[in-house]
Specification:
Blueprint (H helix, E strand, L loop, with lengths): L1 E3 L11 H10 L5 H21 L5 E3 L7 H8 L14 H5 L10 E2 L12 H11 L4 E6 L1 H6 L2 E2 L13 H18 L3 E5 L9 H18 L3 E5 L7 H8 L6 E5 L6 H8 L5 E7 L9 H15 L6 E5 L18 H5 L4 H15 L5 H16 L6 H8 L12 H12 L16 H11 L5 H22 L16 H4 L3 E4 L6 E4 L2 E3 L3 E7 L6 H8 L7 E5 L1 H6 L2 E2 L5 H21 L4 E5 L14 H16 L7 E6 L8 H6 L4 E4 L7 H7 L7 E4 L12 H12 L20 H25 L1
Parallel strand pairs: 1-10, 2-4, 3-5, 4-6, 6-7, 7-8, 8-9, 9-10, 14-16, 15-17, 17-18, 18-19, 19-20
Antiparallel strand pairs: 11-14, 12-13
Helix pairs in contact: 1-2, 5-7, 7-8, 8-9, 11-13, 15-22, 17-18, 22-23, 26-27
Length: about 750
């Protein structure tokens, strides 16, 4: 039996690629030095998989940014504003591109040409090392379905109509790969798991029929992942011309099993994704072996056409448990990072072929049993409290309009009140203080003194700028999820469990392994210290339960919503303690609420119901005079605006500028919003300092669709990644714009 890995993390076990990229971008190292790091990483990844016995090893999954950008370069479709030429390809592929330009097409006049030979070059590179790989390409239909019209192109332009223009380039790539000696090629077509219309499904049929003659003589795998493949898409997929095998996510696509058992075509390869590529739990090998044996009858017992695979690329997991010597040994036995998952895939393939490693399976079974029975996983009091939540929808007793009136009497804010989102710049000195405290190089007393000095500096700056509702700047926090996870029970943390977010940005998600509770207050000390430094309202700053859930590796032994309710109860306790301590404005960030939305529309309502309910649980017990804020970013919110309203927050600050003010369109279309709202007036992801006039113009656009008495003025997001030389003038201009508008509105009255 054969084994296959869909893809592998590229940042390196200790973020080697991140540091090499950023050094190159800063001009501290050469392109040759960067490429040396990249070459060494690729070689080690291929060797690791080869040594582990993997038969189908991927190539062209390595990237300096991401595979969609690499595909854009391959097709010569880099946005024109980059003045792209073939000569500039290397520098373009090794520069920090803005996230939002990666996949845009200029409409019917878009010109495509075979420009980047990366897929072929990496195949040859691996072959020279003695490793015959499966080159991986983003499938042509998925590429277009993930694209968007560029600025100036009609939003209704059918991007799928560009298929005839890109297929000739795919043919050239295929021809080069064949000439280089490739025997297999993998097309990633994950959009097949979406709710596709019939004309979109027809595009798959058309594309692969067109490619069939070019693919002749090659084995072709079409890979899907992240969810079930719907029945119509399954039929389209398994009928594609010239395709040898089909890959399925059988972890998040368990219903696909039924389709495979009843409709899988004979004579084809089945790549069974039974090892989870999106979480860090050790595979239940015995259970996976049962699944695989049930599939063996579909493709033929004893034949080599059942291939054991990962559910998706391992890009979404941490790299290697070997780099976690300090992790609790019991918890560590329950985990498998990418390197361990490669071993699991091969162990399952060998077991299926009658070469079961009894010791390995026995050790795995013991770890599974330990996790199920460990007293550190279960907290009966937490389970009971979470179960009791089901009897109520946890709404505040008074409607938002009455609450806002009560809050205004207490807070006495001007119209168009100004605030920021939470964090202020994290300086090198500040990071040094936190690092030295963690390493026990400075005392707690010295640490508290340093952090209080930083808070005082941030408070004074905001007062000098004349901001209305202040924040303490979060100098004590490393990360908005990790900071809370470190103070909650049921969480574990890694030293090197980094995962690529985008570009060179990496995150280190906490691991939720057990029932969640709050042993003691988490933020009250710092919030009350900050409030004592000013007479202006000081926001208490919390991360919401849905964001903590979605930005963690979550336990897989109970439904996600149950874990979310447990986190919500812990945050509720914190909210109520902040209120008792005199904090009258409390922000509960839900940056990742939209991010957790399932891929299929039929599952949206259930997710949004428990996610929004979890948020309401956190603040249902506060007085009317306590103002609850939330913040959202990194998403398009128009399609979930009614769920956002249903969160029943008093004020929502929301990303707007970075997404070209798309948010305002939902209000132009007639959606009524009665709570306070602060669509961001400038993009904090750019070092550019917006002028007072530019910000005033943005506020005027907002006033055209929103009532004056509910509008807040704030940046798009937190200021942690910016420098004070950028933050101070930008906030000065923001406050000046708000004051200018107040004067104009007063004159108009």
């Amino acid at each position: 039996m054969a084994s296959h890995i869909v893809g592998y993390p590229r940042m390196g076990p200790k973020r080697e690629l991140k540091f090499a990229l950023e050094s190159f971008w800063d001009g501290k190292s050469s392109a040759e030095e960067l490429e040396k790091v990249a070459t060494d990483l690729r070689a080690s990844i291929w060797k690791q998989m080869s040594d582990a016995g993997i038969k189908y090893i991927p190539s062209n999954t390595f990237s300096y940014y991401d595979q969609v950008l690499d595909t854009t370069a391959m097709l010569g479709a880099v946005p024109p504003r980059y003045n792209w030429t073939v000569e500039r390809l290397v520098s373009l592929l090794t520069s920090p591109w803005p996230e939002k330009c990666l996949c845009s097409c200029n409409g019917d006049d878009q010109v495509f040409s075979y420009a980047s030979h990366k897929a072929v070059n990496e195949y040859k590179e691996a072959k020279a090392l003695g490793v015959d790989t499966v080159p991986v390409l983003v499938g042509p239909v998925t590429y277009l379905l993930l694209s968007k019209p560029a600025k100036g192109v009609e939003k209704t332009f059918p991007l799928i109509s560009l298929l005839d223009k890109i297929l000739p380039i795919y043919k050239e790539v295929i021809a080069e790969l064949k000439a280089a000696g490739a025997s297999w090629i993998q097309f990633d077509e994950p959009t097949l798991v979406l709710d596709l219309e019939s004309h979109q499904l027809e595009a798959f049929t058309k594309a692969y029929a067109e490619l069939q003659s070019s693919l002749s003589g090659l084995n072709v795998l079409v890979e899907t992942y992240f969810a079930d493949v719907p029945a119509p898409a399954f039929k389209t997929l398994t009928s594609l011309s010239g395709v040898t095998g089909f890959g399925f996510d059988l972890v998040r696509g368990a219903k696909t099993l039924d389709l495979i058992k009843s409709e899988f075509p004979s004579g084809k390869y089945l790549f069974a994704g039974v090892v989870d590529g999106r979480n860090i739990w050790a595979n239940d090998l015995d259970a996976s072996l049962v699944t695989l044996k049930s599939l063996e009858g579909i493709v033929g017992k004893g034949m080599t056409k059942l291939v054991v695979s990962t559910s998706c690329s391992l890009l979404h997991t941490a790299v290697d448990l070997v780099n976690e010597p300090k992790l609790d040994s019991e918890i560590k036995s329950w985990l498998a990072f990418a390197a361990q998952k490669v071993v699991e895939v091969n162990a399952l393939a060998k077991a299926l072929a009658g070469q079961k490693d009894e010791a390995f399976f026995s050790s795995n079974a013991a770890a599974q049993a330990s996790r199920k029975s460990s007293p550190r996983v279960t907290n009966e009091a937490v389970q009971k409290a979470a179960a009791a939540l089901k009897g109520s929808d946890h709404r505040r007793a008074t409607n938002v309009s009455a609450r806002l009136d009560a809050q205004q009497k207490k807070l006495n804010l001007p119209i168009l009140p100004t605030t920021t989102i939470g964090s202020f710049p994290q300086t090198i000195e500040l990071r040094r203080v936190r690092r030295e405290y963690k390493a026990k190089k400075i005392s707690e007393e010295e640490y508290i003194k340093s952090i209080k000095e930083e808070i005082n500096k941030v408070v004074k700056l905001q007062e000098d700028l004349d901001i209305d509702v202040l924040v303490h700047g979060e100098p004590e926090r490393n990360d908005m999820v990790e900071y809370f996870g470190e103070q909650l029970s049921g969480f574990a943390f890694t030293a090197n469990g980094w995962v690529q977010s985008y570009g060179s940005r990496c995150v280190k998600p906490p691991i939720i392994y057990g029932d969640v509770s709050r042993p003691k207050p988490m933020t009250v000390f710092w919030s009350t210290a900050a409030q004592s430094m000013t007479k202006r309202p000081m926001k208490g700053m919390l991360t919401g339960p849905v964001t903590i859930l979605n930005w963690s590796f979550v336990r897989n032994d109970q439904p996600r919503f149950e874990t979310c309710y447990q986190i919500a109860l812990a945050i509720k306790e914190e909210v109520e303690d902040l209120e008792k301590a005199g904090i009258t404005v409390i922000q509960i960030d839900e940056a990742a609420l939209r991010e957790g939305l399932p891929l299929r529309k039929a599952e949206h309502a259930f997710y949004l119901d428990w996610a929004v309910h979890s948020f309401r649980i956190t603040n249902c017990g506060v007085h009317d005079t306590t103002q609850i804020h939330t913040h959202m970013c990194y998403s398009n919110f128009n399609d979930i605006i009614h769920s956002i309203i249903n969160m029943d927050a008093d004020v929502i600050t929301i990303e707007n500028s970075r997404s070209d003010e798309k948010l305002l369109s939902v209000f132009r279309e007639g959606v009524k919003y009665g709570a306070g709202i602060g669509p961001g007036v400038y993009d904090i992801h750019s070092p550019r300092i917006p002028s007072t006039e530019e910000i005033a113009d943005r506020i005027n656009k907002m006033l055209a669709v929103l009532e004056t008495n509910i509008l807040w003025v704030n940046p798009d997001c937190g200021l942690k990644t910016r420098k004070y030389t950028e933050v101070k003038p930008a906030l000065e201009n923001m406050v000046a714009a708000a004051k200018l508008l107040r004067t104009q509105l007063a004159s108009a009255k």
